[in-house]
Amino acid sequence: MDTNTLQEHLADLPLGKVTFYDVLGSTNTEGMRWAEESALHLSLVAADEQTAGRGRGDRTWQTAPGAALAFSLVIRPEEYREITSSRLTGLGALAVCDVIQSCYRLPAKIKWPNDVLVGGKKLAGVLVETQWQGDQIQWAVLGIGINVARKSVPSQGELDFPATSVETVFGGAVDRWKLLKEVLVALLVRLPQVDQDGFIGDWEANLAYRGDLVHILRDGAEPESGRIQGLNAAGYLRLKLPSGEEKLIQAGDIKLRQVDRN
Ligand code: BT5
After folding, report:
1. Model's pTM, two decimal places?
2. 93, 156, 200, 215: which has the highest count of C-beta atoms within 10 A?
3. Contact by Cβ (8 Å): 66, 77
4. Bridge-partner residues for 255, per DSSP?
5. Among 13, 18, 25, 21, which Cα is nearest to 40's?
6. CA of 33 to the centre of ligand 1 (A)
């Protein structure tokens, strides 16, 4: 793949600038640089390999060469007034989920806030980074990493949650560039819905562990347990505590784990 071929492949989508790198630190870091330099809405940066791929907080995201998708979209959400970072994270996860379900017929679920799972294993992660002006998002960079080929899955010892790849769960070869286009189309279909009421319902309908007991883990804080009720309008998790009280959890740096049912 190269920039020209990718531009041709995606020519029928209403994207801004499109650039492909063989090796890049992080497509999100590059996307943020572009956004600061006034890159057009829906500009896309993609890389075959990331050497400093990032997850939330200080976590890393591994993108091995020739095996995965790593890309970031610059979003200038002028028209979507009620947009939040949380809803944009949901947008990325829901778009991947839509494609894995409809094009590959697999039961994908969203582990709130930002992971896509199949069979209880993570195959994609979403990282949204935003620049605010007053109470409005000036721009957002929506980054998605998808493990496509088997060799994109890091060794389990390096991970804090089980991982898989699209090819592993699909059981056959998957064309990375076809998958990239499918996810971009799903993002473009979902983007105008992102500030609508129905969007939260669609996101909730695809949540993993809904109704189940989970632990919410935060560095340096006591874990909290509760049952997942759903999401509020901002995209925060509604957790029913053992006391019966409902608590709203903001995404930030939390980790969510299902409590063992055994
Ligand atoms: C995420 O963070 O899952 C967000 C991942 C976003 C990656 C994309 S790739 C394009 C764009 N450019 C970037 O630099 N980032 C975005 P989080 O929920 O914090 O999960 C991070 C954790 O996932 C790590 O601590 C590892 O345990 C695990 N992990 C790292 N690489 C993985 C992989 N390839 N597959 C599965 N799990 C992985």
Report:
1. 0.96
2. 93
3. no
4. 217
5. 18
6. 20
